[in-house]
Amino acid sequence: MSIHMMTGLKCVRCGSEHPLCPIYSCPACGGILDVVYDYERIESKWRRGEVEEDDLLPLPASERVTIGEGNTPLVKADRLARRLGLETLYLKCEFANPTGSFKDRPVSMGVSMGVRFGQKRIIVASSGNGAAATSAYSARAGLQAVVLVPESTPAEKVKQSLAYGAKVIRVGGPYSNSFALAKEVGEKYGMFNVTSTFINPYTMEGDKSVAFEMHRQLNGRVPGLVYVPIGAGPLLVGIHKGYEELKKLGRASAVPRMAGIQAEGCSPIARAFLENRSEVESDPNPSTIAGGISDGLHGYAQDGTYVLECIRRSGGYSDYVNDDAIREAQGWLARDEGLFVEPSSAVCIAELKRSLESGRVSASETVTAILTGHGLKDMQRVETGGEAPLIPKRAESLVDLLEQDSRE
Ligand SMILES: [Zn+2]
């Protein structure tokens, strides 16, 4: 049975095909399941001039649980580009989504499919952004949400999720523990798991809309490189799949090279790439200020291998940066361009600077970087670059202070 333009699910490892239903891995081999569309039907429809991006998503907009996700700004960042030594830099402002991160795209799709399948309860494991998104979209759909987050999740993200009325539970240890628990308990109690790694085949489809929008916003020009912060990496794979589909349907001239950037303290995919390995090994003890991408893939390293293969197929690369470089890049984005993002979003800019200096990336390259989450979501570790002094209501005090500043 097909739904909208989807015809079924296909295992990326063994190639076996499966019907559209609530399912989280290949029953034959345990591999990741990928959504297959009726591309012939879409192609003939598009050839008639009826081009709709929704044809490449699990459900049309009218059948989705939505609070206005997507259509985020693509900002040309000239001042930051000059600082980095790059001619053309675009920033996709995913923090402008309704709950403040790109996760609204996959979660909207996941919750919508849950409603479509008649599911009553939603469960998610998240490092925080997916938690807030799942809480909001479940509230919007009138469904109960159980949200598992690692103990290190910033208070802002926990409170945001609680505010939407979700049952938020902190799980001891790294993110992988929350992931394992959501998988086990979700299956046992028939809860629809919208964890936006690769476990729910429908969620990643929502990430493709980033590619469709960028393609429109750049008037059909394909960037040479697209930088994506990666934990498990579904956003990177989703953007790549989106461009591949546009190319297959004759709408895009090429598919960009994908740069998947990690934090040094949690870099299983980058290390596998740099060491030329064919398989990713999990990291059981990740540690970084970039909480949104602190996913050691413990127990599901195959997800990382899938992302690694996608990066290699695109002709791109993967690398990591340390926490100091991340903090510095977070400051550049805010002070050069007025874009306040969480640490995870800054990894791309930090790495891009290094690759421009080393010559890995040329200054004439057209680059787009995805700014995944808002700075307000993780305020404890932000480098503000200054204090806010307190003065009495006296003009001399203010003037003294400003003159002192101008002398410095
Ligand atoms: Zn399989």
UniProtKB/TrEMBL annotation:
Keyword set includes Lyase:
yes
- Determine the domain of life of the protein's source: Bacteria
The GO terms describing molecular function are: L-serine ammonia-lyase activity; threonine deaminase activity; threonine synthase activity
Which CDD domains is this protein grouped with? Thr-synth_1 (cd01563)
Q: Which Pfam families match?
A: PALP
Instruction: Enumerate the spans annotated as Tryptophan synthase beta chain-like PALP domain.
Output: 66-373
Entry EC number(s): 4.2.3.1
Lyase listed as a keyword? yes
What GO biological process, any one, is recorded here? threonine biosynthetic process
List keywords of the entry alphabetically: Lyase, Pyridoxal phosphate
* Residues recorded with modification N6-(pyridoxal phosphate)lysine: 103
What cofactors are annotated for this protein? pyridoxal 5'-phosphate
> Which InterPro entries does the record cross-reference, listed alphabetically?
Ser/Thr_Dehydratase, Thr_synthase-like, TrpB-like_PALP, TrpB-like_PALP_sf
Q: Which family does it belong to?
A: Belongs to the threonine synthase family.
| Matching PANTHER family | L-THREONINE DEHYDRATASE CATABOLIC TDCB, THREONINE DEHYDRATASE, MITOCHONDRIAL-RELATED
Q: What is this protein called?
A: Threonine synthase
Q: Which organism is it from?
A: Cohnella thailandensis
Q: What is the lineage of its organism?
A: Bacteria, Bacillati, Bacillota, Bacilli, Bacillales
